[in-house]
Amino acid sequence: MEQFSPGMVEEVTSLFTPIIPEVVPQDARIEVHASISRFAFLYERIRNAVDYKDEHILRKSAIIRILKRHMVLESDPLAIAKLLIRELIAARYLPNGELDEKVYTMVGALVEKYLVIRKCDVGSSVHYEWLEGILAVEIEEALVDPYQEKALVSFLYERIAKSIHIKGYEIPDAELRLQIYVACYRLLHKADNDILGFKLARAYAPEWLQQQEWLQQPQAMAERLIGVETRIRIALIHPLALRLQRTVKPWAVSLLILRDVAHEPKIRFAELLLEPDKVHMLVTRIADRKYAEVKGRVRRGAFRATLYLFLTKMILALSIEAPVELYYWKEIYYPSLAINLFFPPSLMFLISLFISIPGKNNTDIIQKNISALLSDEGIPNREIRYPAKKSFLGRMAFGIGYALMFLFSFGTLYFVLVQLHFTWVSKMIFYFFLCLVSFFAFRLRHGAQEYVIVNAKPKLTNMFIDFISLPILRSGQILSKTVSRLNVFLFLFDFIIEAPYKIFLRVLEEWFGFMKEKKDELQ
Known about the structure:
By secondary structure, the protein is an all-alpha fold. It has helices spanning about 5-15, 35-50, 60-75, 75-90, 100-120, 125-145, 145-160, 175-190, 195-205, 220-235, 240-260, 270, 275-330, 335-355, 360-375, 390-420, 425-450, 460-485, 490-520; strands spanning about 165, 380-385. Strands 1-2 form a two-stranded parallel sheet. It starts with 5 loop residues before the first helix and ends with a helix.
């Protein structure tokens, strides 16, 4: 087999060389009592069950939630930073006994600039919610070294940026490169809008990172951030975004598999790259393992989604159905109640069973892509057609067709439910759960495509299924965004349970520390 480029072998080897962290002196390490950590970790597990989020953003979401609570109760940035970091360690979002106490000051400075901007009061509540997301990502980067994450993105970007060209439309080179960079970040690290927002904020407003220059007079910076937010929101919904992600994905997946090869135990990566045959054997083994891991993760996600729906939506909705039917019809329609109770989890379970694992063709393409990434020739050129703008008549025709899809899908369901003698309240609850569960299932199936780079051939049956399911999925997406704000259990956790519970744990930890001091005095 053809050898990899020596220059690329050297670059990739340095890219995946692990960074040896600095040794933190024992007396400077931040430690949380093990018993406190167990209680805090248990709380987070229970709370996350009623707030369905992807696993890779749980820490960022926890930072936002904890910050909001402490910024209401506390005004000192350093005190907020200490409480935040200790809670994150206790909940096992950060390692215990490894971080240096210097991070208190570092994170305190980040919190301070947000509080200063907040006092300027020049933006809406939506703007400050956006800014909290940016701050959470910046804090996370301060606590968890992002060097290798950035290096991976930079490597892929440098390899692929010059090979992508837009056909049929003149787009500024800087704009195209920015969108390629965003696509690389999304695919390599599953970056959400908060993460990408922080990356773009550093580019659009680099002075945000130099708060010492504007902290005493923050008004201009506060006003500038409003325009920065607008630019970022526009950049993240660019017409080329999805097409660029489809183009970049095969190379991103291949690079991630190569990273896992480098991190295999007992592997000397630099020596391994001198033997491409062995590299490809290992790639096949790791790819198969990743496919199985994704399938297992999706099934766990199906369980979490079902539990989330049951705890936060089904109990409330079903507690409404029976009383309303008793009030209007003087009896409970048990068949419809049973369908509404058992159909959602059954649908989620069935969909998780039919998640397929990529085959050999997918792995073969990954092998070829790795060879291209490590070659002097690099990635072959790709042309992307800019999305064509539809005329007014075209938009109207597609809009009518889209409306007819809704009428057909929901009209057919209505006819079936009438035949099953559903009441109007049981129909509403069935629609509600069908749309939500279908959308969650769609997200899970989409997650199962994480390592799939072989484009499936369009089939007539798939087109018909899309025609039927698209209105339901779209309705589920809207409902998901709406009802997530009406999560009674989440309100109960965040505003009634969490604050006193965390205060109790803090007092308990201080008591443990006091007892330890008294015990040491006996020696």
